[in-house]
Amino acid sequence: MRYSIILMAISFMFSLSANAKEIHKERSIYRNVVITEKDQIRCMRFETRRKKVSNQTCIDLSDKQKLVFEYTQGILAGLAIQTKPSRVLILGLGGGTLSNTINQISPTTEIIAVDIDPVVVKLAKRYFDYKENEQVKTVIQDGRVYVKRALLKQEKFDWIILDAFNGDYIPEHMMTKEFLSEVKGLLTNEGIISANTFSSSELYHYESVTYQNVFNQLKIFKAPTKGNRVIFACNCDKLTFPEKIPLTLENHFSIYSMKYLNIVSQINDKVDWNLDSPMLTDQYSPANLLK
Amino acid sequence: MQKITISLLAFCAGFSIMSFELLGGRMLAPYFGSSVYVWGSIITVFMLALSIGYLSGGKYSLYRPNLKKFAIIFLVASIALLPAIYFSEYFFEFVFQRVEDPRYGSLLASCLVFLVPSMIMGMIAPYSVRLLTVSADSSGSTAGFLYFISTLGSAIGTIMTSFYLVLWLEVDQILWFILSILATCSGLAFASFYFTNSKILATNENTLSTEN
Fold first, then answer.
1. Quick check: B34 and A173 CB within 8 A?
2. Who's near A43: CB < 8 A, 6+ residues apart?
3. Measured between alpha carbons, how far is A145 from A290 in angstroms, rounded to an integer?
4. What b/e readout covers A240-253, taking b as 16+ CB neighbours within 10 angstroms?
5. Among A27, A114, A115, A142, which would you mutate to test the B interface (most chain B Cβ atoms within 10 Å of its Cβ)?
6. A145 near B CB under 8 A
7. Of A30, A152, A173, the CB nearest to B97
8. Are residues A36 and A80 in the same domain?
């Protein structure tokens, strides 16, 4: 069973990266952003000479509603708790898949997507149908700086999605206890976070301990074939995923080939990290050395 | 002996400057992010500080240069790090609340926290050239050797901080580490000053007694 999962993961990685045709490359102040295409799968990635390619985002051109990454489905399970969020903050835009999906499922929700790289935003619009409108706004800024400024303005969000961590370089100032406390400070009562995080290496333990310290109770979704882990936490005493969700939401999910019960069955609150690991703080955050 | 001491001190100064500069990025990131312009601000401020430091260190070396004054530069440099340890967050918060643009915010914040200590550290290099130079003929070779030593120190300060120190210690602890290196250097320079002086004194006394 385990081997078949590993094989599936490897073949999935290869199908997304091996010999994918480069259809566009653009230089930003941070790196080269590349758009690739293979077998109707279009992906955005940051140029690297390494063998192992990590895609920032992918869409299936034959079925644009399909969520290619499993962790995206995991993150969207947050809608089961915040069924009608009035404001959502997304840190790390990628191709804008999350923003587009949330906007389609809940058109009245105000969405603010923050990304540091203007080229990513431009290519998300051009190649991944990322849509801005009355409700969806993009801010080009460092995520931590955005959060600090929003705190000054006493802004509040019902749902904050942290998705700025899937590149080769980890923004270390967005892994710390202080950062997570600031994020928590932006949440409304009962507001939730969904964070795409690391599930391998030493960093797994450090990061988990840090989240646990700030939010107490964590719910974990682990993508079955890929290595992503989504952490759910809330600004409340107890976070529970409902067994049943409104029919309309279930119908919406089915458009994206999401089965809520399947996803929720992969969410648990098992603590499988080393509780003695040090916390990541603004004073101590060697995330890139730990991964 | 004096050559070894001064070389060691120049090495430590080079080490401290780059270690401090690397920490600068870490200290600013929570307030201004880690965008390319934040690093731009830090490097600008350090380069500016070093240029002023070189100029003033060179000027200071014109007035009866000795190891005691050299020791004082190290002592002042180490004391100048204290505000970075105790007050940097207040400075950063102050600037963050007043300057929206992270480019100028990080530039101003860097000036407030990094300019003075790195300027004083910059005084060390030209002063050490003066202390070691014995003749105009050899001055180029002396300067070259000291550049070599202090830049080697900078290289090691960079790699040690970014590869290991941030993994072993907290930012403030590393700042204390740099501070103690500079303070120890100061002590070493003082000791060397008094040791050399007493030797000179002894030689003078010997010469006097033989003359008598």
1. yes
2. A16, A20, A35, A36, A37, A55, A56, A57, A58, A59
3. 24
4. ebeeebeeebeebb
5. A142
6. yes
7. A152
8. no
CA-nearest of A136, A245, A135, A232 to A190 is A232
Domain count, chain A: 2
Pairwise CB contact (< 8 Å): B36 & A30: yes
CATH class for the region spanning B2-211? mainly alpha
The helix or strand, by DSSP H or E, that contains position B105, with its residue range, turns out to be helix B102-132
Reported ipTM = 0.83
Separation CA A252–CA B1 (nearest Å): 80
The reply to whether A37 falls in a domain is yes
B101 and B114 Cβ atoms separated by less than 8 Å: no
pTM to 2 decimal places: 0.87
Percent of chain B with pLDDT over 70: 96
Residues of B (50-69) whose Cβ lies below 8 Å from A: none
Based on the fold, state whether residues A179 and A267 are members of the same structural domain: yes
Query: Domain of A46?
Result: 2-60
| Chain A contact for B169 (CB, 8 A cutoff) | yes
What is the H or E stretch that residue A110 is in?
strand A110-115
- Judged by a CB distance cut-off of 8 A, whether residue A269 touches chain B is no
Looking only at the bridges linking them, the beta strands covering A157-162 and A136-140 are unpaired
- Whether A257 and A64 have beta carbons less than 8 Å apart is answered as no
Query: Which tens digit of pLDDT belongs to each residue from A8-60?
Result: 555 555 444 557 888 888 888 888 888 998 888 888 888 777 766 677 888 88
Nearest Cβ partner for B102 among A142, A284, A286: A142
Distance from the B86 Cα atom to the nearest Cα atom in chain A, whole angstroms: 13
Asked if residue A239 and residue A183 are part of one domain, the reply reads yes
- Domain boundary (A25, A42, A60) is at A60
**Based on C-alpha coordinates, what's the Rg of chain A?**
18
Q: Which residue has the tokens 């080393």?
A: A274
- By C-alpha distance, the chain B residue nearest A152 is B97
